[in-house]
Design brief:
Layout lengths: L1 H50 L8 H4 L37 E2 L2 H4 L12 E5 L5 E6 L4 E5 H11 L2 E3 L9 E3 L26
Length: 199
Amino acid sequence: MRFLVAGLIILIVAMIIAPTIVRAREPARELQCLMQLEQVGAAITMYTYDHDGYPLPANWHWAIRSYIGNPAKPEERIEPGSGRDPLKCKSDPSDSPVSYLYLDRRILGYTMGRLSDAVTPLAVDEYFHRYATMVWYDGHVSKMPKQEWVYYRLRQWKIRRNLADAESFSYELIPGSQVEPVFAPPRVVPTEKFIWPKF
């Protein structure tokens, strides 16, 4: 009888402590996610130096694979989706090889976004933690509450993830939200008679 009571007490204590242990691991996973995003940001920066531009949203994660690990040496290659892959969040339970969403800088020219490196995220994890973790175009990493990030991006950029596409690893413009880019040439309205401007 005493063994049964002791076992029951141990079970109750374990049930009380288990959620605390899980919650204690979450900040460590968020920190690991931030470090991985820093690696992703560095890989994209190296890609831009070599190719004179940012990778396209459709294949950005494959484009930067050669900048992660060492593809020339088999022992230093990082398998996509493995535990060592910086593109895969440890809290991501899916089979997807990429956990982060890429925000293509070229899209932002057609939105309401302020194109400043310090306020423009490059890659974001908005699904797998209590906070949205992100790396910015100027290279720093940070986190913010999910609701704040969603409000921030919808108010600034009118973008979303294409949830209908399982292979979508980047944000896309919300239909109808495009605006003319600031650098667009003025439209010429044809007239019956052309009048030369006076200088």
